[in-house]
Amino acid sequence: MTSMFKHFETKLTSAGLVEKGAALFGFLDARLEWNHPDREAEKLGVLFQNLNINSLLFAQPAEPYATIINYLALTEGEAIQPRDCETRTFLHDLPIAPDPDPARLEFLLKRRKGVIVPHYGIITTGTVSIEQAYVTFSSFCFACFVKFFGDYLRDVRRGNTSAQQKAAYEKASAGLRPLGTDNVALLPGPFHTEAEVLQAMEEAGRQVVAHGLVDSYFGNISCLLGTVLYISQTGSSLDHLGGCIDPCPLDDSSCAGLTASSELSAHMRIIAETGARTILHGHPPFAVILSMDCEVEDCDCAGTCHLKCPHTRMVCGTPIVAGEVGTGPHGLCHTVPKVIREGTGAIVYGHGLFTIGQKDFNVPFQRLLAVENACRREYFKRVST
Amino acid sequence: MYGWCGRIARIDLTSGKWEVETPPAALLKDFIGGRGLGVHYLAPFITRSWDDPAMPLLLFTGPLVGTAAPTSGRMAVVSRSPLTGTVSDASVGGSLGTALKRAGLDGLIITGKSPGMCGIEITDRQILIHDATPLSGKGTAFVTEVLKKKGAVAVSGPAAENRVLYANIMVDGHFAAGRNGLGLVFAEKNIKYITVQGKGRPLVKDQVMLKEACKDVLRLVAASPALSGRLGIANFGTGALYDLMDARRMMPTRNFKKTRFIHAADLNAHAYRQQYAPENSGCSGCHIRCKKQARDGRPLPEFETMSHFSALLENRQMEAVMEANRICNDLGMDTISAAATLACHAEIIGRTLEPDEILDLLTAIGTGRDTGKMLGQGSARYARACNRPEASMAVKNLELSAYDPRGAYGMALAFAVSNRGACHLRAYPIGHEILRKPVATDRFSFEGKARIIKISEDLNAVVDALTACKFVFFAASLEEYAKIFEAVTGMATSAQDLLQVGERIVYLERILNAANGFGIEDDDLPQRFFQSQGDALPIDRRAFLKARTDYYIVRGLDHQGRPTKEKATALGLDFHKSGAEPGAKQDDSLYDFNV
Ligand code: SF4
Ligand SMILES: [Zn+2]
């Protein structure tokens, strides 16, 4: 278990979600283990007795997440209700406990995968592995980030920001990671062998994560070699793709890629529509925030924008489309392939950004970064005008 | 009452009388329905022999059946297994569960023995028992066709009449209540068929909330590669797993002597699609529709059938697999146990069976001819009778399904400790060990697996109580189903509350098995998996035993795997009453049925 603890501790710190040494992991098989002795361990250990879980993560998030989450937790009532895709699909809402009273925590954790206690921290659980607790923690941070900045922009426009909100905004903005630099050169294509493809995918995946363009195990990546599409597996982390890439023949002659990303269909269609050979998909936060910043008034689709938005909206030269994860009737596999182009990419409402290239990952990576950087600048421009 | 009908029919076949009773609300809260209620009503009789007329055959739906809840058209059949001697349940799809609910019943408790072969016909709230002698010996396809105007149809086939210990009950011709020989219990009571139709609908407490909760599930299903993905089971059927098992080198081959079948690529789901251009079908109330049917009406085999009738028997003919599946369905017997018993037979006689031979032997089993009589008693009894017990790949006399435990250690533990023998569906660790859901775990490690298996057993038990389909849990979780349950029944619950119901069911099953003498020596795998063989690395026996000990600790059993009074009390179970008189395991030698 020690190596698992280390792995996820490192992931939390390198993603800037938690300060080094601040994450407490508990794992129960026949015996309960913690990653380090902690006075909270005793208190939280009780949760293992009354819940059928095997993993728990407790941490106070790092800045700017701490400021953001504390602000939302103190102003949003019983639960935070973000509208981004990760929350909508996997979390539903983010419950808040006013204090770490064990009975209250237990009550909320019986219903949801995690709970926020303002100025104390986030507690998340898993029934299979500590990876679940880690993913939920990371998604809580991402969802709160997107909601906080999205709400602030909306409230600025409406002229109803509070002093407390402004202060939180100033502090959170000051704590943002520096803009990603685009002086990264990835392996040049075209690729001729499977080994080259895998190496290029692993390298590009690492860079997407290193630049903060995706969180936890979201995002996906693919590369076409001949008639086989190599694609990251579902639930894989883009910075650890070794052994997690599935070869999928374009004619579906093998189902060995049953474990491929939930966006396999979208990738296949993008390739068919555009002739692209490489695809990147991340969840860069400011692109997601701006995708939900819509000024159309009295729209018939209000509330279901992520499913039905009929307008061709653009941000920073990139089209925004509706679409849900996967292959349902409102699946993004029906919308993204129609609009995506090499120079632009495509943003899915409240979800993330797809970019494509012809021979390697340099173009899609640069585009992913450029769109996010442009969206971030555009966001602050919109706030100040 | 919302969700449930509040009506259970008790049918005594000896007297031909029936009556309806209302289950107490506390019972519904504690056991919900399906497998839960079935096991509860089985408990007082568990130490009787499976063929004792007092032994009940229980058919139960859950509160979600007949509502808009996704994949909730299933039901559970429960009794004591003639094959394993354990408590036994089978989750079955088709339209029977929905029909029963629409007829205003949550379940049937069938006891006694009809003087002659009979059919039970249920229409709305009426139950009639008919003479079915003219249907004696007829295949399930014929009987289903004859009866389909009468609604949902459950039939026992010639295999059950010929005392095959792994005889199934076939619902609507294609859906099997399988694995533990419940078809034989059906036939032992002299039931040939049950038909059900009704026009009612269960009441739903909060339709708006239900609609919202269903949307959450549908969204997750759409996002699931294993279900709705391009290569998922909605598109290819469960056969989609075939290539994956090949790619992970865990396809049981030549009676588990090898883990790789070199012809697998020619017999995958894509090849079936090319050959048979199947259409989609599915259980009532399910939008995933994972069942595939060839143009000629034959169902495509499920993954386990595909794998065992090819790799396990080293058969390269796809058409033989299709036919083997059709024959097993028509005769009404379990495809996994039938194939695995033939593989055991092939090992004992020292040669591979030809495709025609496979089909002939299946017919011989189902019709009680020649060697078929012995093979119909399952690999364990057959191998022991041949003095070759090591050739049976079974746990508690139930043959292993098509996942080689050497390629997934959670599966190894789950097979060993399962309450109904080597069943992959008790804990289905393939979800995380292979399909990466909800997250991936290291398939070659026992680390953490004891508690994972325990929690997944609880999960699947409550899913069988609800009665939903396990496949939907590749995508959704009890978090979403708790909301559905609340919307339908109006009873407040949570994911963790539901898991505790699952834990109660599994623990009660464990108590019932213990009452019949099951213990640590039964929670084990065939020795083959711990010894170097062919192309697979053996499982480290010590690591396995440690994981099993850890499982006992996590499950709240003593070091011999026996239930404890403290744990039973904590779960609200009556440790003593549940098991009635002390009983015994069944005789492991061949039955002398004189058929
Ligand atoms: S997923 Fe398949 S087995 Fe499950 S309910 Fe639907 S059709 Fe039936
Ligand atoms: Zn995404």
The profile of the biggest β sheet of chain B is: 6 strands, mixed
Strand content of chain B: 5-15%
The number of helices of chain B is 24
- Most extensive contact: A-B, 51 and 59 residues
Name the assembly state.
heterodimer
Q: How far is the N terminus from the C terminus of chain B?
A: 48 Å
Q: How many helices of chain A in DSSP terms?
A: 13
- What is the overall pLDDT average of chain B? 95
Strand order in the sheet with the most strands of chain B: 2-1-6-3-4-5
Please supply descriptive tags for the structure shown above.
heterodimer; A: 385 residues; alpha+beta; five-stranded antiparallel sheet; 41% helix; 17% strand; B: 595 residues; Aldehyde Ferredoxin Oxidoreductase,  A, domain 1; six-stranded mixed sheet; 12% strand; binds zinc ion
Report what the structure shows.
The complex is a heterodimer of chains A (385) and B (595). Chain A is an alpha+beta fold. Chain A has helices at 2-14, 39-50, 65-75, 85-91, 102-109, 130-158, 163-174, 194-210, 264-274, 285-291, 305-308, 336-339, 362-384, and strands spanning 24-28, 32-34, 55-59, 79-80, 94-95, 114-117, 121-126, 220-225, 228-232, 245-249, 278-282, 313-315, 318-321, 346-348, 352-357. The model of chain A has no long low-confidence stretch (mean pLDDT 94). Chain A is globular and about 55 Å long. The longest helix of chain A has 29 residues, at 130-158. Chain A is 41% helix and 17% strand. With 595 residues, chain B is an alpha+beta fold. Chain B has a domain at 8-197: Aldehyde Ferredoxin Oxidoreductase,  A, domain 1 (4-Layer Sandwich). In chain B, α20 (449-466) crosses α22. Chains A and B meet through α4, α6 and α9 of A and α7, α8, α10, α20 and α22 of B. Residues 71, 74, 93, 282-283, 286, 288-291, 469, 471 of chain B line the site of iron/sulfur cluster.
